[in-house]
Design goal:
The chain is mainly beta. About 10% of the residues lie in helices and about 35% in strands. The protein has a single domain, classed as mth639 domain like (Jelly Rolls), CATH 2.60.120. Strands 1-8-4-5 form a four-stranded antiparallel sheet. Strands 3-2-6-7 form a four-stranded mixed sheet, with no helix packed on it. The radius of gyration is 13 Å and the shape is globular. The relative contact order is 0.32.
Amino acid sequence: MQFKIQFYGHENIRSTHQKTIEITKDSHLTPSGDCIIGVNASSGCADLPISLKEKLKNSNSKVMFSIKVADHEFNVEGMGNENLILTHLDDIVIRKSEFMCPRTLAVKCNKASDLIPREMVLLLQDPKTKGTFTITID
């Protein structure tokens, strides 16, 4: 199963957080949002298909994330969890930890926003840059 979310860059994208990656439907971003890699996203957690949410709520589900910007691609692996809430209207956060909140999409991820190549981050600092966040569950 695969689900794609479109998002855009923003001049305040820093992508320096060591534990999370976030995309948001919000259009505004302050420099303190250092895990956010995209704004104006086409979906938040609440918008995900029910069939995808059911797979995400399985602690044995392996989840793959692909972030594509221009010719660049960054891949992350994570896990589903039976305690996921998946109800936040605007945000999607993937985490290295097992912290749960309505924004959490996956836990135990192997990478965070600080590892995204700086060439990608520079592109994402342009509001005209379009990216794709793809969720794949086996």
